[in-house]
Amino acid sequence: MVSTKTLMQLCDKCGSKYLEENGVLVCSECGLEHLFSVRRSEDCVFRVCNLFIENKNIAKRIKENYGLDLFVYEKTLQLLCFAMLKKVPFQERGNISSFHLTVATAYVADNLFSKKANNTPVLTQKLVAEITKITKRSIRKSSKFLLKYEFEEIIFEMCKRLNWIEEEEELYKIPI
Ligand SMILES: [Zn+2]
Q: 38 C-alpha vs ligand 1 centroid, how far in Å?
């Protein structure tokens, strides 16, 4: 989230006001990017996915619930996060912090793709809250915001690649 204080900062080069542009502070006059500008949610994906798989409980659940290798799960989650975030325009992200949004994206991704294949999710609200120190309420709020967007195709594609979807289900796929 860009605070009012950050927006009041002035350009190092010309002294004009920095304005937020796609989550980055850019000078309104000369276009110089602020060195300490806010990171975008996309920049947090690797860190967030890594935080999860490094947790022992999560690692155990990945093996038990999905029968997936840790590395495969991490890459899968990363790809899902990037694809899902692409669907959420920067100007619609509002005041959700970039880190919070990434955490919620990973949480929603795991939930959607486990449901699609009738598996038990790996990322529970409780575990996600414990690992990221974000409240369960906040996770629910950001997840609700994310679910306004359409992720069906992304989830379907991933499940197909993991061979989690039966052949016959493909018949119901809506042509692109
Ligand atoms: Zn400037």
A: 17
CB 160 within 8 A of CB 146: no
List all residues 6 or more positions away from 76 whose beta carbon is below 8 Å from its beta carbon: 68, 113, 158, 162
Ion ligand 1, residues whose Cβ is below 5 A away: 11, 13-14, 16, 27, 29-30, 32
Domain map (residue ranges) of the chain: 1-38, 41-172
CA of 30 to the centre of ligand 1 (A): 4
Ligand 1 centroid to Cα of residue 22, in Å, is 17
Averaged pLDDT for residues 95-99 = 85
What three-state secondary structure class fits 6?
helix
* CATH code for residues 1-38: 2.20.70
Tell me which CATH code domain 41-172 carries.
1.10.472.10
The alpha carbon of 35 and the centre of ligand 1 are apart by a number of angstroms equal to: 12
Q: Is the per-residue pLDDT at 42 higher than 70? A: yes
Q: What is the pLDDT of residues 106-156, one digit of tens each?
A: 999 999 989 988 889 999 999 999 999 999 999 999 999 999 999 999 999
